[in-house]
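Saturday, quiet lab. Running sequence design on the structure tokens for the scaffold JK sent over.
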């Protein structure tokens, strides 16, 4: 039996990947998994429970690492878990500490190249002896990790996967609710309002395109520490009327299905689920060429890539999507086909299962 551990179960990229994995794991081989969260549950907990998966909340705070490790250790001892798979930094650290001396191998995951938090890589390196393997969401993240001293032999690239059948179903409700007519062009951002994702760059882009594209609206689906700053910047640049901050939407399809394009101006990345969702939904993508974005988007074929922190290049790419809807539709269709071929949930689950098989076979051999 496998225990999955994550910080919380709100709707984010790592959380969705865990839910896909736990829900579709081969239970005949690995048993029914159990999912544990450090800080609380969230909407995905209900989905997991409906699928018959046990969900445990430790209900702790970020700084309670030792207590979380002790509680998780009791859980590991209470059932016959064969493997622990952890997602995100705090869960990675707690899982490693909890599994010391338990005989339960640990698989951690590296979801992003955390350029702004080098101490996390240092802790990862110092505790790396406690893991059997670490999964990386993109080859770019794997190479970044190797460059920072993590052992290459333990790093396995497993791309995110997505269920294409759940996207592009025409369930958009945002356009009508915001009273934006069919002539309006919607450039959608999905992600945390954090410097990593570059939402502040969109304010400059909106300013550049304000007069050239009078029907262009920027819609931001997400919350985070930059929200107040973004509202202030939009007012100061005179683009507030076309800059819509929605907070975090429970159902991304309500906005995504109404969008003319997804725009992701990240400064650094792992492998953004937002791009996968847009590609699966047949929505053209404009993104910065950072992290795993280039492993998802083939520039000029399945979307457009621009250099990071270049508002003018991003503005020109957005303008190109609007100027040539035929080419945009061609790229979007190619993107949807690419996701359905290369980035499916089934491929992601199978890759993880193969990793588990190798680790468990090694454990049996050692025994």
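Result came back. Writing it out in full:
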């Amino acid at each position: 039996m496998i225990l999955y551990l994550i910080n919380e179960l709100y709707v984010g990229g790592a959380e969705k990947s865990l839910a896909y994995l736990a829900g579709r794991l081969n239970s005949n081989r690995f048993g029914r998994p159990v999912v544990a969260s450090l800080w609380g549950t969230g909407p995905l907990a209900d989905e997991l429970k409906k699928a018959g998966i046990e969900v445990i909340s430790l209900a702790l705070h970020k700084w309670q690492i030792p207590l979380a490790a002790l509680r998780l250790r009791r859980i590991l001892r209470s059932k016959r878990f064969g493997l622990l798979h952890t997602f995100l930094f705090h869960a990675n650290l707690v899982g490693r500490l909890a599994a010391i001396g338990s005989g339960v191998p640990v698989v951690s995951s590296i979801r992003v190249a955390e350029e702004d938090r080098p101490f996390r890589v240092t802790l990862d390196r110092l505790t790396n002896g406690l893991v059997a393997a670490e999964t990386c969401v993109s080859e770019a993240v794997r190479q970044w990790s190797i460059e920072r001293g993590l052992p290459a032999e333990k790093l396995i690239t497993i791309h995110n996967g997505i269920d294409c059948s759940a996207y592009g179903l025409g369930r958009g409700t945002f356009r009508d609710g915001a009273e934006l007519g069919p002539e309006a062009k919607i450039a959608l951002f999905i992600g945390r309002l954090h410097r990593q994702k570059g939402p502040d760059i969109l304010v400059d882009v909106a300013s550049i395109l304000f007069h050239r594209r009078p029907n262009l609206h920027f819609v931001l689906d997400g919350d985070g520490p930059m929200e107040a700053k973004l509202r202030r910047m939009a007012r100061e640049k005179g683009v507030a009327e076309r800059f819509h901050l929605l907070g975090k939407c429970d159902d991304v399809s309500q906005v995504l299905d109404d969008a003319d394009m997804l725009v992701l101006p990240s400064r650094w990345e792992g492998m953004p689920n937002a791009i996968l969702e847009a590609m699966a939904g047949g929505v053209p993508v404009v993104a910065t060429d950072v992290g795993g974005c280039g492993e998802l988007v083939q520039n000029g074929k399945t979307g457009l890539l621009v250099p990071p922190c270049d508002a003018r290049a991003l503005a020109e790419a957005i303008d190109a999507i609007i100027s040539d809807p035929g080419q945009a539709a061609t790229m979007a269709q190619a993107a949807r086909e690419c996701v359905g071929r290369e980035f499916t949930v089934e491929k992601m689950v199978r890759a993880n299962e193969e990793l588990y098989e190798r680790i468990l076979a090694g454990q049996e051999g050692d025994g």
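Notes for JK: DSSP finds 16 helices and 13 strands in the chain. The chain has two domains: 2-161+344-366, 164-342. Ask whether to fix the surface positions before the next round.
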